[in-house]
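Figure 3 (text version): structure tokens given as input.
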């Protein structure tokens, strides 16, 4: 597995001094996009390391200046680029908080040990995150909430849950009605 993790995508250029607007892919944008931090800019199969030289936030999105990107044309060329950071630069998280990449691939089991499926993704902001779990019956969305998530063991790649009655049926009904 790669040591690099997606923290944002360049939306578009901003202004005429080489700044870009970023669509963050992190719940910790203020930590990830800070002056002096280095980002790996990936686009078209190429990677370049660039240091953040200026940052401000507008409507929750970072507007950043990167070392070596000095004109509007330079910034426009970055539209769609992925911005990544090495895991070692991401720092520790608050208690009972997990990186999305640490949850993807974990096996989800109920309190009796019955396998529900494997986490294929995590959606939503930190305060309303949903585990997307591939199960035999399709996809199950499990809220990352106290009382539902009993134990997360990223080392063992497992998550124990206590699902509310009917949650799996509700997910099945939602899939059926959305495919009509």
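Below: residues designed for each position.
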């Amino acid at each position: 597995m790669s040591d690099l993790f997606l923290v944002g995508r360049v939306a578009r250029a901003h202004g005429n001094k080489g700044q870009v607007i970023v669509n963050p892919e992190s719940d910790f944008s203020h930590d990830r996009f800070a002056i002096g931090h280095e980002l790996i800019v990936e686009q078209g199969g190429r990677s370049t390391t660039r240091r953040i030289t200026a940052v401000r936030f507008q409507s929750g999105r970072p507007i950043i200046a990167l070392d070596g990107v000095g004109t509007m044309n330079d910034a426009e060329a970055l539209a769609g680029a992925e911005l990544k950071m090495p895991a070692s630069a991401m720092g520790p998280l608050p208690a009972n908080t997990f990186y999305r990449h640490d949850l993807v691939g974990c096996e989800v089991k109920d309190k009796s040990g019955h396998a529900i499926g494997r986490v294929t993704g995590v959606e939503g902001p930190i305060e309303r995150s949903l585990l997307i779990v591939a199960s035999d019956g399709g996809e199950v969305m499990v809220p990352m909430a106290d009382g539902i998530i009993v134990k997360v063991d990223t080392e063992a790649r497992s998550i124990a849950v206590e699902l509310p009655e009917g949650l799996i049926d509700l997910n099945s009904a939602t899939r059926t009605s959305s495919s009509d």
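The two ends are 38 Å apart (CA to CA).
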